[in-house]
Design brief:
alpha/beta, Rossmann fold, 3 domains, 5-stranded parallel sheet
Length: 464
């Protein structure tokens, strides 16, 4: 697990990215060599190849990202991987052709480009299938020993079985001293009375120990854990392991001391100032680019249904301050006149025909850039909720108030990693993502979220 600007990135993703980059750069050189291997003088006329090869590789990697080939949830099978690689190759051919036409200085030339694309696609597909096979080999996975076999230990099994960050293999669970309820469905449960923790870890070739005890008082094997740590085995508590593999903060039975003493939640004045400058710049550029689109959207709204063009609603901002949020109207006029505030639902009957299109394309959120310019919102941050829901959720969900320490955003970590929330249970799940973002906030993470948002918009995910 790599940590870049406090954000955890799986080794699997870094390996794939490095391999893909090397393959496509190599493919560009291979295309040039195959085209002119018999004509050394032509090679000298072409000039530097590396900038062209790097541009060629970057375009293909961006397309692979948009097609989900770098998703954290590693649940792609052979057929799915093959299909996405083929689409990446076809789309990459079209995208590179168009960009070479617009930027001729980075063009490889038609013959070299065709050979590079063919060579890259063949090697790229085989590399991906080989990596997929390698991920299924138990001997190549990090071996984890979980201390505990109760409900807390079951969370480890749940998060790994849901496809987060493959590359881990749980070799077994060490039952808590004194017994207790067992929540893991496995025969690989070790009893501490039969062997020491270190001997179990040594015998099972363990790389990582995750402490997942429901009650530590009188049950925490301090000396054994310390011995494992001193012998070079990585030791993590459950909340830290959960954060690393899922990109969320585990709220179930979370001790406030973990939040207080854990690394993170640092907000330097310079970082906040840089974030604000980026917000202003992007909001200005976005509003300028959207100016030709807004009159057309306004006209379509007037034709489609009765009601105002702009939708105004009170939302809760940073530190609980209320502000007026602006959007293009996507619901029928007075949609909640009889029901009052209610959660959005799949196929929401309050949404108009045009409203569904505006929501799927996120065009309805363009006016929120005015909120960003005013400083009430940021481009990246937790979703701004309505006062009615905030008040109710603060009473039901622990630590919900802490999400108000950051400015709400047009998009955010929870928005791109979880479906559209429509219940208190969804709010709890999204809060775990929001707290992760607040804890590890950085411009690097903002860039990742912005790029991931483009993928979400492209495939129309999350809108209701």
């Amino acid at each position: 697990m790599f940590r870049v600007f406090r954000h955890y990135i799986p080794v699997r993703i870094v390996t794939l990215l490095a391999g893909d980059l090397a393959i496509f750069v190599w493919a560009a050189y291979a295309g040039v060599w195959l085209r002119f291997w018999a004509d050394p003088q032509a090679l000298a006329v072409i000039g530097p190849i590396f900038p062209k090869a790097l541009f060629f590789a970057s375009v293909n990697i961006c397309i692979a990202f948009l097609l989900g080939l770098y998703a954290v949830e590693g649940n792609l099978d052979t057929r799915d991987t093959t299909a996405r690689v083929v689409v990446t190759g076809l789309t990459g051919a079209v995208a590179n052709s168009a960009l070479f036409y617009l930027i001729p200085d980075l063009s490889l030339g038609r013959g070299m480009f065709a050979l590079a694309m063919l060579a890259g696609a063949v090697v790229f597909l085989n590399w991906r299938l080989l990596f997929l096979w390698m991920m299924r080999q138990p001997g190549l996975n990090a071996r984890i020993l979980v201390v505990g076999a109760g409900p807390a230990a079951g969370i480890v099994d749940d998060v790994l079985s849901n496809g987060f960050n493959p590359g881990f293999q749980v070799v077994g669970y060490v039952e808590e001293s004194g017994g207790g309820p067992r929540a893991v469905q496995t025969s690989r449960v070790f009893h501490p009375s039969e062997n020491s923790l270190y001997r179990i870890a040594l015998k099972e070739r363990v790389n990582k120990i995750v402490v997942a005890l429901g009650e530590r008082r009188g049950a925490f094997p301090l000396k054994e854990i310390l011995t494992c740590k001193m012998m070079g085995i990585e030791v993590l508590d459950l909340p830290t392991f959960y954060e690393q593999v899922s990109g969320r903060i585990l709220l179930k039975d979370l001790r406030p001391s973990w939040l207080i003493f854990s690394d993170g939640f640092r907000k330097s004045t310079s970082a906040l100032a840089a974030k604000r400058m980026v917000d202003i710049l992007l909001a200005c550029v976005g509003l300028i680019l959207a100016l030709p689109l807004l009159p057309l959207a306004a006209l379509a709204l007037k034709i489609d249904s009765r009601g105002p063009i702009l939708f105004r609603q009170t939302r809760v901002g940073q530190h609980g301050r209320l502000f007026t949020l602006y959007k293009l109207r996507t619901m029928c006029d007075d949609a909640e006149a009889e029901t009052g505030p209610v959660w959005a639902a799949p196929g929401d009957p309050r949404v108009t025909r045009l409203g569904r299109l505006l929501r799927a394309s996120r065009i309805d959120e363009i006016p929120q850039m005015w909120n960003v310019l005013k400083g009430e919102m940021s481009f990246i941050g937790p979703r701004p909720e309505r006062p009615h829901f905030v008040q109710a959720l603060q009473q039901k969900i622990p630590y919900y108030t802490q999400r108000l320490t950051a400015k709400p955003g047009l998009t955010g970590w929870a928005q791109v990693r979880y479906r559209y929330g429509g219940s208190a249970e969804d709010a709890l799940e999204k809060l775990q993502y929001d707290l992760y973002y607040i804890k590890n906030m950085s411009l690097f993470l903002d860039v990742l979220i912005a790029v991931d948002t483009a993928r979400v918009i492209l495939w129309g995910k999350g809108a209701r």
